[in-house]
Amino acid sequence: MKVLIAAGGSAGHVEPALTLADALTRRDKPAEVVFVGTAHGIEDSLVVPRGYPLRHVLAAALPRRVNRDLFATPVRLRAALRSVLAVIEDENVDVVVGFGGYVALPAYLAARRRGLPLVIHEANARAGLANKVGARLTRWQAQSVPGALPRAAVIGMPLRESIQRVAAMPPVERATAKKEARKALGLDPGCNTLLVFGGSLGARRINEAMAAMEPGLADRGIQVLHITGKQGAGLPEQWPPLRAEGQPAYVSVPYFASMQTAFSAADLVLCRAGAMTCAELAALGLPAIYVPLPIGNGEQELNARPVTEAGGGFVVLDADVVSATVSETIGTLFASPDRLSQMSAAAQGLGVTNADEQLADMVNAAAAMGGRE
């Protein structure tokens, strides 16, 4: 079986696609997988190092409002469609899978044109335009949380194998892994630990908040692992802070590749509310203070809603994160271990760790049906 996967534009699209590819290729009857993406997207840095072939195609954005770009859309879409059709013919593709984004729409239309089975997965709580269109073309639909697409099966988010391994550890092993992770990161194995990250695009406001809160956290005996983003936007020139002798550590790094280690070290997380982040923290049972990125169609606030409504975290608006209230909330939570344990259990109750296998089953079922709906 030859599977074409369309995923590009952001890590939120590409990472679950790679997890699906791993699931498809490790089966008893492994599939062959080829990715399509743009020449200037993040795909090159994520897909190629994982050993999967990547074919460059043209993307087709759908403008959200009436403007000059809207009138050029049909021309761009036809060109993008032709570029994907050429890959489908050259690779002898059996089934197409898409995760949304600009590169997905022409792939969906190409699958329809060639009568190929099409599978789509929506990661966010509010579907993007490409997946809204794709959902009209196929019954093979999956979503991470309910409500994004009316007819899609709710299967969760395909999570990286490294995250699945940590989530599967029994409590004793998790406790040992926490101590080892903290030692490896230069943290005190027995100290309350806050993990902070905002992503390369969403770090500024969270970084500003940490610069304001840092003295108060030190006074409360809270050590911090802060992933600032490569630019360190919003931070003072003299950073990281120099804490006094006897105070807990403040470890600041621009980027961290092994997030499972960072997650293992943490008791509480301050972060954005991307779909992947929400899914991983739920699977790991990590309580979090979510700061939704205030752009796009409001999907980040919706992504965090299921876990926060269950009691596994809080939402703080971007405009409010630089405030004394957030620091007080963090201090109160660390002073209440039972409350943190309850939040952890609530988050973990929503965690799903086998979405990759469920989605792979759907791809196999669609391929078995061929072009028949």
Count of alpha/pi helices: 14
What is the strand tally?
Answer: 13
The helix content, as a percent range, equals 40-55%
Work out the radius of gyration: 22 Å
Structural class: alpha/beta
Which stretches are poorly predicted, pLDDT < 50 over at least 5 residues? none
Beta-strand content bin: 5-15%
Oligomer: single chain
For the sheet with most strands, the description reads:
7 strands, parallel
Instruction: Tell me the name of the CATH homologous superfamily of the largest domain.
Output: Glycogen Phosphorylase B
How many domains in all? 2
Global morphology: elongated
Write structural notes for this entry.
The two termini are 18 Å apart. It is built from 14 helices and 13 strands. Helix 3 (68-91) packs across helix 4 (104-114), helix 8 (199-219) crosses helix 12 and helix 10 packs across helix 13. The chain folds into two domains: 2-159 and 354-369, Glycogen Phosphorylase B (Rossmann fold), CATH 3.40.50.2000; 161-348, Glycogen Phosphorylase B (Rossmann fold, 3-Layer(aba) Sandwich), CATH 3.40.50.2000. The strands form two sheets. A seven-stranded parallel β-sheet has the order 3-2-1-4-5-6-7, with helices on both faces. A six-stranded parallel β-sheet has the order 10-9-8-11-12-13, with helices on both faces. By secondary structure, the chain is of the alpha/beta class.
